Amino acid sequence: MFADRLKFISEKIRAASARSPFKSKQAVRLVAVSKTHPPESILEALENGVTVFGENRVQEAKAKILRLPTRCHWHFIGHLQKNKIRQALPLFELIHGVDSLAIARDIDRIASETGLFPKILLEVNVAGEQTKFGFAPERVHSEMKELRQLPRLQIEGLMTIPPPAASPEGSRKHFVALRKLRDTLEADFALSLPELSMGMSEDFEVAIEEGATLVRIGTALFGDRSGKTWRPEEPDSLDD
Ligand SMILES: *Cc1c(COP(=O)(O)O)cnc(C)c1O
């Protein structure tokens, strides 16, 4: 049952945050990753007190957002394509995966055209995997000056997706690396980056021990998503 899974996870979040030496003043926030799951599952989560949902496709998210109460808060956790920025900006309260200076510039430009001040996290590829999206750690440092000059962007912190690990402990060094990079950036640029989005179903407790403020949990809350997709029965007339 959803309520049981949520209770189990909430207890683990609370315990991990109690033992973390890096916990922030603000409580760790759960982002319930609802991608592929239907609006009814999201509604059930909402009725159980979950209010923040993570989606990784703009079209799918938009269709769900239109079908759910406005008290849902939506975070974009995927790779944002340039041609989806205009649609995405008004829908999401936080964009977790801003992964290059080029996309940051595009977001800033479109935000200024549409009168918005988007909150974003910079996605960092801490393990240096060639195939993955994200800033290389030295790049986020060398490009921070330019990133900060983008007047519309509110850079709230950093996000990472570590490479698959055999055990949760295997991810710890990547979470440590993200936290340390955040500390370095704060010191070198005299800025505040309070949010660290790290940790998923398998490793969120380790992430919280290392200072996560946002954990993105899908499978452990909503169940397996292999082979699942969700599409609206009636296409939205608002879609273009
Ligand atoms: C799908 C996804 C998650 C959730 O993963 P689970 O292992 O199901 O908890 C978290 N973060 C991102 C970026 C994702 O795409």
How would you describe this protein?
It is a single chain. The protein has 240 residues and is of the alpha/beta class. 40% of the residues lie in helices and 15% in strands. It has 9 helices and 8 strands. The protein has an 8-stranded parallel β-sheet with strand order 7-6-5-4-3-2-1-8. The protein is globular and about 50 Å long. The mean pLDDT is 95.
Keywords for this entry:
single chain, 240 residues, alpha/beta, TIM Barrel, eight-stranded parallel beta sheet, 40% helix, globular, binds pyridoxal-5'-phosphate
| Weakly predicted, low-confidence segments | none
Q: Approximately what portion of the residues adopt beta-strand conformation? A: 15-25%
What number of structural domains do the residues give?
A: 1
Multimerization state: single chain
* Ligand species: pyridoxal-5'-phosphate
Strand order of the largest sheet: 7-6-5-4-3-2-1-8
Count of individual helical segments: 9
Order of helices and strands: HEHEHEHEHEHEHEHEH
E-strand count: 8
Q: Please compute the radius of gyration using only Cα atoms.
A: 17 Å
Estimated helix fraction: 25-40%
CATH architecture: Alpha-Beta Barrel
Structural class: alpha/beta
Question: What is the assigned CATH homologous superfamily?
Answer: Alanine racemase
CATH topology: TIM Barrel
CATH top level assignment: Alpha Beta
Largest sheet: 8 strands, parallel
The coarse silhouette is: globular
What's the rounded overall pLDDT mean?
Answer: 95
First-to-last CA distance: 37 Å
